UniProtKB/TrEMBL annotation:
Coiled-coil annotated spans: none
Protein name: Cytochrome P450
Organism: Thermosporothrix hazakensis
Gene3D superfamilies for the chain: Cytochrome P450
Superkingdom: Bacteria
Amino acid sequence: MQTKSNREELIAMYDWYRQMRETQAVSQDPASGMWNIFRYEDVERVLSDHATFSSEQNRFVPPSTAM
């Protein structure tokens, strides 16, 4: 059984990131529900626009009307 060299693994990883930037720049992982963001400009916006992008889950839950 032949394994990939470290260099081949690194090249494959960079090819995958390039492909993701070109085809799925923003995608949600169905298993974890986490968002993946691959383009620099998109990452920069997510990290600086706190009003739009937040990990605070409570802000998306409507207030309870039960007493």
